[in-house]
Amino acid sequence: xxxxxxxxxxxxxxxxxxxxxxxxxxxxxxxxxxxxxxxxxxxxxxxxxxxxxxxxxxxxxxxxxxxxxxxxxxxxxxxxxxxxxxxxxxxxxxxxxxxxxxxxxxxxxxxxxxxxxxxxxxxxxxxxxxxxxxxxxxxxxxxxxxxxxxxxxxxxxxxxxxxxxxxxxxxxxxxxxxxxxxxxxxxxxxxxxxxxxxxxxxxxxxxxxxxxxxxxxxxxxxxxxxxxxxxxxxxxxxxxxxxxxxxxxxxxxxxxxxxxxxxxxxxxxxxxxxxxxxxxxxxxxxxxxxxxxxxxxxxxxxxxxxxxxxxxxxxxxxxxxxxxxxxxxxxxxxxxxxxxx
Amino acid sequence: xxxxxxxxxxxxxxxxxxxxxxxxxxxxxxxxxxxxxxxxxxxxxxxxxxxxxxxxxxxxxxxxxxxxxxxxxxxxxxxxxxxxxxxxxxxxxxxxxxxxxxxxxxxxxxxxxxxxxxxxxxxxxxxxxxxxxxxxxxxxxxxxxxxxxxxxxxxxxxxxxxxxxxxxxxxxxxxxx
Lengths: 341, 177
What we know:
- The structure holds two protein chains of two kinds.
- Chain A contains eleven helices and two strands.
- Chain A is mostly helical.
- In chain A, strands 1-2 form a two-stranded antiparallel ribbon.
- In chain A, strand 1 and strand 2 (about 115) form a beta hairpin.
- In chain A, helix 3 packs parallel to helix 9 and helix 5 (about 150-180) packs antiparallel against helix 7.
- The longest helix of chain A is centred in the N-terminal third of the chain and has 33 residues, at about 15-45.
- Chain B folds into two domains: about 15-45; about 65-165, Alpha-Beta Plaits (2-Layer Sandwich).
- Chain B is built from four helices and five strands.
- The interface of A and B includes residues 43, 47, 48, 52 and 320 of A.
């Protein structure tokens, strides 16, 4: 029987569980920070303050939002399909958390003499794992929109489906160039292969294509047609409220973090620092978090800048520009890899 | 029949529509330009006035809540109860009941004074006609604009309330602001 994937872990089962809890907790803490950072930065970019009433400098605003959402009634429209309506946000949040597991925050460290890899799992099929969960995440949006029994939700979900299918291809092809160059699918392997030079330099077009497709994958501006509040009242989550809406929101921001983490890992050298600086191992997670923060800032910055695309523009951009560019990038990289080796 | 433009019609010259490659390049450049703009805005100070703490300064001729005035030297009320303000009021929100001044009980400088002077601010449209109508400058429009209250009857301002100085002064706009 063929091996489907080699999961590289060195640890005892209890370290695995501990690691999962720690990473989940860190991810859980990052989401409110990103939420607050987004609202503050958006405010600043629009010459206003953003939230600054709850707590010092508005620092407790996300907490207040979550409490508000969780104390609300779990409302369900009479036209909706019950169990799917409840299941859809769970799928969204599950896939986002699952994708977060493969982001490497550092190499194997010896903590109290025990070797511990600073990542959830190091799968030998890293990017494929990511795309698999990205594809399942689409069910969260699609089922949520369809089971709401509302035309706006349905329109948003249909747009989301078309958008995800169009941009996943380009996203995958953009990573192919990196995988050719690194010669491995393991994300820690890809980081290790960037010792000499980060892949943002030789794979610049791959980086751009992946970034743009990442904006589309996370349904963020300027590709937020799925939840276009101006036209669709809120898209797939129109009928959601309370805790379920909070789950969708949480998943959306966790997806932003996941894409930031993948870009950091694949193009920005993960935990590596430039100019030959080799800090002690415990600095690695902070380097990764810093780079992720920069990427998240880019997400917010773009949201503050660009208006939403029209649907036909979205489609023609995805298929006519992004896909040929990604294909060309993969082809040129393949030729160069063969020639230089 | 085709329409031929006259000599006064200006021909608009348009550049040719950019192709796919050029259009992409141009869109990329414009995107970067827009991002530069938003980044610059982020470094600037917000223009927000944090309202309950900071208030918008009003212009000197701003028509806010009315004020009744007294003579500064004698302390007598300027209002003589002539009801011209009530007559001028288009929304009929001023009620004046006049009474005679007596040597023992002298309230105003004239023969009569306003025993009751009420303005129903829930009806007032802040047109300033009362101020114009008053022959003694006894009523003027002040600068207060925070006039919300919980019951309608609280918005009927009596003479004492209108004579008193407002508790909090509304900031006045400086010259050239």
